[in-house]
UniProtKB/TrEMBL annotation:
Organism: Streptomyces roseoverticillatus
Organism placement in taxonomy: Bacteria, Bacillati, Actinomycetota, Actinomycetes, Kitasatosporales
Record's protein name: RNA-binding S4 domain-containing protein
Keywords: DNA-binding, RNA-binding
Protein family (similarity comment): Belongs to the HSP15 family.
SMART domains noted in UniProt: S4 (SM00363)
RNA-binding S4 domain: residues covered: 10-73
Biased composition (Basic and acidic residues): 94-109, 116-131
Amino acid sequence: MASDEGNGPVRVDSWIWSVRLAKTRSAAGTACRAGHVRVNGDRAKPAQPVRVGDEVRVRLAGRERVVVVSRLISKRVGAPVAAECYVDNSPPEPPREHVAALAVRDRGTGRPTKRDRRELERLQGARDGGR
């Protein structure tokens, strides 16, 4: 197993990548440099060490994840093993808004007529207020 518990702390960017909070290690490092990673409330540089019990806040892809380190690893492992390395205290993900499907016209039918356009606007609820 890729556990470093006896060897001391692990870099925060490496840990974020190894527990699958970031897709790549460079993305984890970039997030640290951009100020999107906090360890125990303080902004973290990529090489900052994390220890068991630290709270790590990661903001990636528009979502903030709040996790508490329960085990240190420095190598990427499978998702079930990675999930055991932290306690997830993240707020629930907001529900996705229902997005109406865009009207798809057959290729080669040309521009919609005024009548077609008005039907589409009626079906879509005329979101722009009729201009």
